[in-house]
Design brief:
Blueprint: E1 3-4, E2 6-8, E3 11-13, E4 18-23, E5 26-35, H1 39-58, H2 61-77, H3 79-90, H4 94-114, E6 121-124, E7 130-138, E8 141-145, H5 153-164, E9 168-172, H6 178-190, E10 198-200, H7 205-214, E11 220-224, H8 227-239, E12 243-247, E13 252-256, H9 262-274, E14 284-290, H10 291-305, H11 326-341, E15 345-348, E16 352-353, E17 361-362, E18 365-370, E19 385-391, H12 394-402, E20 409-413, H13 417-426, E21 431-434, E22 454-455, H14 465-468, E23 469-477
Parallel strand pairs: 1-5, 8-9, 8-11, 9-10, 11-12, 13-14, 13-20, 14-19, 18-19, 20-21
Antiparallel strand pairs: 2-3, 4-5, 6-7, 7-23, 12-22, 15-18, 16-17
Helix pairs in contact: 1-7, 2-4, 2-6, 3-4, 3-6, 4-5, 9-10
Length: about 475
């Protein structure tokens, strides 16, 4: 099998051996083998990016815009092919995977327009005879570290603004999903990005990631992943005064009030908690339901869950694909065991199952009779596991929703304008959803959270410029 290589300084480069990319829907299916970069390759990538930065950052913005647009269009043109690859290596269903690919294409096309929209200010000085201009400039070399759960969309929403605003990139994707990253790199190269502007270094976080974070010539790090890893990155990067942007997960609440439309509540809960195998940082893992709705809601959700088909990600009719790998599956099963030991009632699901092909298949799990202090309601599980928490009323539900160290996404299902308006204001989350699932955001608006979920500037939309540029104030004698 051909080894898929790293891309450094405009060339495809071997690494230090390779790793196999295994299909979680069928562990007998080897997708490809991908080269692993080492410290030497990482050093070469950083130096290539540093050398390419002056020309890229000051070159034609029209040319930059056209390159990004070509990347976006190529992704959209190949969405079926790329979606099949994504579903095959990550395990989300084919329709979800194609949708993610389309989003990646739209992101690049959006930032092709943003290249031409970087505005500044011209202000009078308080001192007579002076003019003051405020402009934005690129940072330099950006290290991008992405997770396995959105293997093309999250790289897109980091790479596109980094390039749009004139930076050069060293991109390290998650070890579990090198295929989508490599395919994206091929498209970027084919679009005509100059040598050194974009570099792909595949390899383990403890080798490539650590070297990237600690490299003195990497000006900024954008990371999406676990809270523990994010904290370690923050400590290392800030110690050398590098700029950081961290997205670190969530324990997202969906509040369902007595006046909610039951069908809407059920679909919001099931979609938000279990689709994409629950492997979304915006998943609804805590279902907080007021007393008058609780029993009806639980019965309806459990009935809806019985209709969900867990199977091969590429198979027609599959609603939920496999867990991404055996390690994550074991973590999910451990939390299901912990929940039962804590006294929660496992109403349905939570079992490893077999299908026609060997894979990491898990039935969605729903716990009831839980309380806010249980570990299953405090810690991010990152799988198809949700807990129902009974609330006395709206005020109690809001308090429970905010009782978490995370603050990424929060939702409410209600027909009350009063409660919806109050929840949008007082929910301690970066993103609030009313009568829609907590998972699922547009590509042109800011993404990010509060408290332990996020650190630094928001991602996506025009707000991305806050991280990928620096502000310069200049004085001119009139």
């Amino acid at each position: 099998m051909t080894l898929k290589k790293n891309f450094i300084a405009g060339e495809w480069i071997d690494g230090q051996g390779g790793i196999a990319n295994i299909n979680p829907s069928d562990t007998s299916d080897l997708i490809a083998e991908y080269a692993q970069a080492g410290p030497a390759q990482l050093e070469d990538a950083v130096q290539a990016a540093r050398q390419a930065f002056p020309a890229w950052s000051t070159g034609s913005i029209q040319a930059r815009s056209e390159i990004l647009d070509r990347i976006g269009q190529a992704i959209l043109d190949r969405r079926a092919e790329l979606g099949a690859l994504l579903a095959r290596e990550e395990g989300k269903t084919l329709p979800e995977a194609i949708g993610e690919v389309a989003r990646a294409g739209q992101i690049f096309k959006y930032f092709a327009g943003e290249v031409l929209q970087l505005r500044g200010e011209l202000q009078p000085s308080v001192r007579p005879g002076l003019d003051v201009s405020v402009t934005r400039e690129p940072l330099g070399v950006i290290g991008l570290i992405t997770p396995w759960n959105f293997p093309i969309a999250i790289p897109a929403w980091k790479i596109a603004p980094a390039l749009a605003y004139g930076n050069c990139v060293v991109f390290k994707p998650a070890e579990l999903v090198p295929g989508s990253a490599h395919a994206l790199a091929e498209i970027i190269v084919e679009a005509g990005v100059p040598a050194g502007v974009f570099n792909l270094v595949m390899g383990p976080g403890r080798v490539v990631g650590d070297a990237l974070v600690n490299h003195p010539q990497v000006d900024a790090i954008s990371f999406t992943g676990s809270q523990n890893t994010g904290r370690n990155i923050a400590a290392a990067a800030t110690a050398r005064m590098a700029k950081i942007q961290l997205e670190m997960g969530g324990k997202n609440p969906l509040v369902v009030l007595d006046d909610a439309d039951l069908n809407t509540a059920v679909e919001c809960a099931v979609n938000g908690a279990f689709f994409s195998t629950g492997q979304r940082c915006t998943a609804s893992s805590r279902l907080i339901v007021t007393a008058g709705m609780h029993d009806r809601f639980v019965e309806a959700v459990s009935e809806r869950m019985k209709q969900l088909v867990v199977d091969h990600a590429l198979k027609d009719g599959t609603h939920i694909g496999p867990v991404v790998d055996e390690r994550q599956l074991n973590q999910d099963l451990d939390y299901i065991r912990i929940g039962s030991e804590e006294g929660a009632h496992l109403l349905c699901g939570g079992e490893r199952i077999e299908r026609e092909t060997p894979g990491f298949f898990l039935t969605p799990a729903l716990f009831t009779e839980t309380h806010s202090e249980m570990r299953i309601n405090r810690e991010e599980i990152f799988g198809p596991v949700a807990s129902v928490i009974r609330a006395d009323d709206y005020d109690h539900a809001l308090a429970l929703a905010n009782d978490t160290v995370f603050g990424l996404s929060a939702g409410i299902v209600t027909q009350s304008l009063k409660h919806a308006t109050h929840f949008k204001r007082f929910s301690q989350a970066g993103m609030v959803m009313v009568n829609v699932p907590t998972a699922g955001v547009d590509y042109h608006v800011p993404f990010g959270g509060r408290k332990g979920s996020s650190y630094g500037a928001r991602e996506q939309g025009s707000y991305a410029r806050e991280f990928y540029t620096t502000v310069k104030t200049a004085y001119t004698l009139a």
